[in-house]
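Now read these lines:
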Amino acid sequence: MAHTQFGQGGMGTVVGTAIQAGAQNEQQQHQTWDAMETYFECITTCSLDDGECVTRCVEQLREQG
């Protein structure tokens, strides 16, 4: 039976990198959701006729994204 050498980092480095990438992706999704939630909360306070208010909400969303 042959043994494969993976170098100093070995498979632990690969697995660790994959876990870190998954955590970063989850954090990014959470931040996106928070930004969208803030946006919808903002526009619900605006009057339908108040375009300036809606514009402010959109600008806030862009800044968070």
Observations:
- The CA atoms of residues 42 and 57 lie 6 Å apart.
